[in-house]
User: Which sequence fits this backbone?
């Protein structure tokens, strides 16, 4: 049989055959020339979930993807602990997961498959004293390209290893953080701000003293995992404080029982015979109540002191102090992604005959007693994997009393004090607070956005009953030149409700660029006003190879109602009687009218550049500016009364240089220098207990220190001492300013004309960790203030005093020792 086709069909078949031949030849020709492109291969993705040792999501953890020791991609986890790294070509990679205060997790080999999403779950372990349990890797880079805030932190290892005086009090290590300075009373200041203008947080709850704003909360330093200080460019989540914030982050229990103890042996002194000097034990214990479900941690820090003044007569020469600080925490995994945390903090202190010294006899001392406690409950819920909702509530209460030895007049002479102290004070305060934050899942629009919304409400109440006795001023011939009496007032009470809400965005328009705009709303019931504070900050990673990063930001920051200042108007009047040379009598009143006040407002802006130098030296140069208006201060003149007004203007400008290097794995070193200027248009703190005569004057604030140098580090000792670690620390800063007065208390010179001598302290120490009977121990011996510098905090500023210009201080060289029990050795 013969099959035939029409001419039309034949032509179509021939055309198809020719087309196939052309395509085939074209392919072979392209292959021969090496230009034929295969079909594109889709890249893979890496889905990383980071949790802590108990399975709680960890935000802001840096995930690095490396190949041949070169970083190809990096990302930070969201508040729900997730990070997605896209566009990864198929291959084998090294993954590093880093967060300050935690050991770096390393996945040496991870295979990325084309077109697939590879899941990876990582649990980070917090840095502890037990280095034998975890391989100590190099410290994470302190340069975080996705961190726009001006932040400096000190970790648990550094809190434990930096030598500083009175290591039982964590507040004494804060001045070793660049930009932080401690005043004469030990209270801290950040970016030139008053203590009242700084926010202090513990586990998300504010713990600043509600009335004075001081940081009074005590904790066992060994219970802290990290102290984070933010001075500028921080988000709209934080408000009611223009001077930065201190975030106290505590350790969490896990599935292993842990225990440590420090200074459990009292010290002896030889002053008027051998007797106990002080005993400052502290201990920490943690572990599981129900494995993988419920964990606890308990910490205790105590102090018993016998301060004997050898210049005073027997029986009236000892100040006895007893104090205890206890913290209990419980964390529960209610369900996967739902973590409930409860906190109970208790501080108690009792001091008998406080205030005695070589020139202050037993009669002018006080018996004081105080306590505070904090009850807090916080819940964190992960919703739909990429959304986190957290809320919490806490009750913070404190009470204090101070009682003098009698009711004799308080006498201030040119050669010291006598009589009985003039104030009898009984007070209590409380703060009820609640907050809620919603961290929404990232979404795409001209880049990636991560929105956070939330708010909080605080109610603060302050009650006090304060009685004051007469005060007499004597000249060099023991003649009374001035006397002050007070009107006695009944108990008073003040309160305010603080409400706030905010919205914050983390917008990454392109890789290596982050912009964080936000706005905050605050309302204060005392002023009956609302305040809006817009803020914006950003960072750009200029050069990934050298980790060169530039950050900048500007924002409006408001303070809160200062109940301490306001309370002066509720404490009665002060009558002054001058006997010579111009006899006169007048009465001072203190007046507060909320209608004349507005909230202090600060414009805070800063710019910083970070870079990794050769030798893995990390450098930062930063300029910070904080200028405020509407600050509160009493204005007026003696005899005409004082009125609280909002006319004060504060200025702070600083340049800060910081170098940080890990000398050896696990042995960091830091050097930081700050050049600053802290001034105000009104520096005189007129109050019912400030006996200064004159009018407001401008100049340097009492904590102004134009030059400040901070350095610390540690390193293993060489040769036969290689089992010992050497640690050292140093602080130098310009002396604080003071004013001069005459025998009547009249201001003669403004602040800044006279200063205390420069402050300098250097504290070296050596420590050895060793095993004994199956347990780990550490023994340290060190010298505080090795140069034996006086470092005075007080001066006789009375120009009519024979001791005018004499400086007084407690600084002296001190040999100290420390023994720590670090727990059981595990195989």
Assistant:
């Amino acid at each position: 049989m013969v099959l035939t086709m029409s001419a039309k069909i034949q032509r179509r078949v021939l055309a198809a055959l020719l087309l196939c031949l052309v395509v085939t030849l074209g392919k072979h020709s392209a292959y021969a020339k090496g230009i034929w492109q295969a079909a594109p291969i889709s890249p893979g993705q890496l889905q990383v979930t980071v949790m802590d040792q108990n399975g709680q999501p960890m935000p802001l953890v840096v995930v690095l993807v490396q190949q041949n020791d070169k970083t190809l991609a990096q990302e930070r986890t969201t508040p729900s602990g997730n990070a997605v790294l896209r566009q990864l070509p198929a291959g084998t990679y090294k993954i590093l997961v880093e967060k300050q205060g935690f050991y770096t997790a390393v996945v040496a080999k991870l295979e990325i498959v084309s077109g697939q999403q590879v899941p990876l779950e990582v649990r980070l372990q917090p840095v502890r004293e037990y280095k034998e349990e975890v391989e100590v890797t190099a410290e994470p880079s302190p340069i975080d390209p996705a961190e726009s805030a001006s932040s400096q932190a000190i970790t648990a290892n550094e809190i434990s290893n930096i030598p500083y005086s009175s290591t039982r009090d964590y507040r004494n290590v804060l001045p070793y953080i660049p930009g932080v300075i401690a005043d004469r009373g030990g209270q801290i200041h950040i970016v030139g701000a008053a203590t009242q203008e700084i926010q202090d947080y513990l586990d998300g709850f504010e713990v600043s003293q509600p009335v004075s704003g001081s940081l009074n909360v005590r904790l066992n330093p060994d219970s802290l995992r990290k102290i984070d200080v933010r001075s500028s460019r921080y988000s709209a989540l934080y408000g009611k404080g223009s001077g930065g914030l201190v975030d106290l982050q505590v350790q969490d229990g896990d599935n292993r029982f842990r225990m440590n103890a420090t200074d459990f042996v009292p010290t002896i002194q030889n002053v008027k015979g051998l007797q106990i000097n002080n005993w400052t034990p502290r201990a920490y214990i943690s572990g599981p109540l129900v494995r993988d479900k419920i964990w606890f941690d308990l910490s205790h820090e105590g102090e018993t002191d016998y301060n004997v003044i050898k210049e005073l007569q027997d029986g009236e020469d000892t100040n006895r102090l007893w104090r205890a600080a206890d913290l209990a925490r419980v964390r529960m995994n209610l369900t996967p992604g739902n973590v409930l945390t409860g906190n109970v903090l208790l501080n108690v202190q009792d001091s008998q005959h406080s205030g005695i010294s070589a020139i202050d006899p037993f009669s002018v001392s006080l018996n004081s007693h105080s306590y505070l406690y904090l009850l807090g409950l916080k819940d964190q819920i992960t919703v739909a994997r990429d959304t986190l909702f957290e809320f919490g509530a806490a009750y913070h209460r404190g009470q204090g009393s101070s009682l003098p030895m009698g009711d004799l007049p308080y006498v201030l002479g040119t050669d010291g004090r006598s009589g009985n102290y003039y104030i009898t004070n009984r007070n209590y305060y409380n703060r009820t607070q609640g907050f809620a934050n919603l961290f929404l899942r990232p979404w795409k629009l001209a880049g990636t956005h991560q929105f956070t919304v939330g708010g909080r409400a605080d109610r603060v109440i302050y009650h006090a009953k304060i009685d004051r006795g007469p005060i007499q001023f004597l000249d060099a011939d023991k003649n009374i030149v001035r006397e002050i009496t007070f009107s006695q007032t009944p108990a008073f009470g003040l309160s305010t409700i603080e409400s706030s809400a905010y919205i914050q965005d983390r917008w990454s328009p392109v890789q290596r660029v982050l912009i964080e705009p936000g706005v905050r709303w605050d309302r204060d019931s005392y002023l009956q006003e609302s305040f809006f504070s817009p803020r914006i900050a950003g960072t750009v990673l200029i050069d990934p190879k050298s980790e060169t990063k530039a950050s900048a930001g500007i924002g409006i920051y408001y303070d809160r109602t200062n109940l301490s200042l306001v309370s002066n108007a509720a404490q009665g009047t002060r009558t002054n009687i001058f006997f010579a040379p111009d006899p006169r009598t007048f009465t001072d009143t203190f007046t507060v009218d909320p209608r004349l006040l507005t909230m202090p407002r600060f414009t805070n802006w800063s710019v910083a550049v970070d870079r990794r130098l050769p030798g893995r030296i990390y450098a930062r140069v930063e300029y910070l500016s904080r200028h405020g208006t509407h600050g509160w201060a009493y204005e007026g003149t003696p005899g005409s009364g004082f009125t609280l007004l909002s006319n004060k203007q504060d200025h702070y400008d600083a340049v800060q240089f910081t170098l940080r290097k890990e000398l050896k794995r696990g042995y960091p070193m830091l050097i930081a220098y700050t050049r600053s200027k802290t001034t105000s248009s009104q520096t005189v703190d007129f109050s019912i207990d400030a006996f200064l005569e004159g009018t407001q004057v401008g100049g340097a604030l009492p904590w102004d220190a134009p030059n400040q140098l901070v350095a610390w580090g540690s390193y293993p000792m060489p040769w036969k001492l290689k089992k010992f670690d050497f640690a050292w620390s140093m602080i130098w800063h310009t002396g604080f300013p003071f004013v001069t007065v005459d025998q009547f208390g009249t201001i003669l010179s403004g602040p800044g004309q006279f200063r205390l001598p420069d402050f300098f302290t250097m504290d070296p120490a050596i420590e050895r960790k060793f095993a004994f009977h199956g347990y780990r121990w550490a023994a340290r011996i060190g010298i505080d203030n090795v140069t034996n510098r006086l470092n005075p905090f007080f001066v006789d500023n009375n120009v009519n005093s024979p001791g005018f210009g004499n400086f007084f201080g407690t600084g002296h060289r001190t040999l100290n020792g420390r023994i720590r029990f670090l727990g059981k050795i595990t195989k």
Helices lie at 7-33, 156-161, 563-566. The first helix runs from residue 7 to 33. The first strand starts at residue 44 and ends at 51. DSSP finds three helices and 51 strands in the chain.
